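Duplicate of #3305? Posting structure anyway:
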């Protein structure tokens, strides 16, 4: 790979990939391809901390690959692969488990949140999820990891694990792991639930009206936006610190993300309009943004051989990089290699 800084990120193929995933993450990844060595994975191993239907998990993994490419991620510029196809992820995760403390993991907010949502399945994988995430990042010597503020805790524990291992085994210098930094692209839009606009849009939301799936029919998207929760004030104003305006703020954020204008400029443009007219305009803008993505997705759906070849070659390239890091780790530990 070229001598550029390396970025690593990925999405779980669980639930429906949403407008929030696209505007908050994947759309930004496309622009990063020119400046960085980008590695984007389909994180299927992370998905099984919650019970998955096997057939659906396989389908969604391929769907996610199609979505990546349809959104503009170029397999010739970025490395795309399925996490479970590279055994080094599980191998390094076990090693790093031995260098991660129970107290660190017990403080992770995601474990607390998922334990509440899945009280009947509080498994060890759910608890050690951040260690696997650390392995994902450290295997590829990533410099930067695009994250939202709510995920920065995972970057901090990854840094702690990397620094701990390096300090134990690399006192003479030449650290095994590059210590990554969290990276928050300025243009990333935080898209909120259409039903509960004080909460982030989630692909695992049980209420289908709360999110827009990239694979929804366009008519369904329009209806979801038209039914989005707003307020009784009737004024299109951008007031990000006012929870009472959370619904309108969210629609303005979505409109800004798909048009490239600021929330303030859009609010000024639509001042005096009713909420119904504004929702219609937002819906039309979203559909136009997603129309070429859906066309490319549908085209890729007819190319199973191409997708399978991408999975194979991506796994080979990823394994080559990951294996070099794992070999260094094993050597430091004293394993026979």
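Output from current build:
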């Amino acid at each position: 790979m070229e001598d550029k800084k390396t970025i690593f990120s990925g999405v779980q193929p669980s639930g429906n990939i949403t407008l929030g995933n696209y505007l908050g993450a994947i759309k930004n990844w496309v622009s990063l391809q020119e400046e960085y060595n980008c590695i984007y994975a389909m994180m299927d191993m992370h998905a099984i901390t919650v019970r998955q239907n096997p057939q659906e998990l396989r389908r969604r993994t391929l769907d996610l690959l199609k979505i990546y490419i349809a959104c503009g991620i170029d397999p010739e510029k970025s490395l795309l692969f399925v996490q479970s196809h590279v055994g080094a992820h599980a191998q390094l995760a076990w090693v790093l488990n031995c260098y991660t403390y129970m107290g660190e993991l017990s403080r992770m907010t995601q474990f607390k949140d998922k334990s509440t949502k899945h009280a009947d399945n509080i498994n060890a994988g759910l608890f050690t999820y951040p260690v696997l995430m650390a392995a994902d990042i450290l295997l590829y010597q990533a410099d930067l990891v695009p994250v939202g503020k709510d995920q920065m805790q995972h970057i901090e524990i990854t840094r702690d694990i990397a620094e701990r291992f390096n300090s134990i085994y690399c006192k003479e210098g030449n650290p095994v792991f590059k210590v990554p930094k969290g990276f928050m692209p300025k243009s990333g839009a935080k898209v909120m639930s259409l039903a509960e606009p004080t909460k982030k849009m989630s692909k695992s939301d049980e209420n289908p009206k709360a999110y827009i799936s990239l694979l929804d029919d366009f008519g369904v998207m329009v209806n979801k936006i038209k039914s989005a929760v707003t307020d009784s004030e009737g004024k299109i104003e951008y007031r990000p610190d006012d929870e009472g305006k959370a619904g309108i703020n969210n629609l303005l954020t979505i409109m800004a993300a798909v048009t490239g204008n600021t929330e303030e400029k859009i609010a000024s443009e639509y001042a005096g309009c009713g909420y119904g007219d504004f929702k219609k305009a937002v819906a039309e803008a979203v559909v136009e943004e997603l129309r070429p993505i859906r066309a490319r997705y549908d085209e890729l759906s007819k190319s199973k051989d191409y997708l399978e070849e991408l999975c194979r070659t991506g796994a080979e390239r990823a394994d080559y990089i990951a294996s070099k890091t794992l070999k260094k780790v094993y050597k430091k530990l004293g394993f026979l290699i």
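Confirmed duplicate; merging threads. The first strand starts at residue 6 and ends at 11. The mean pLDDT is 91.
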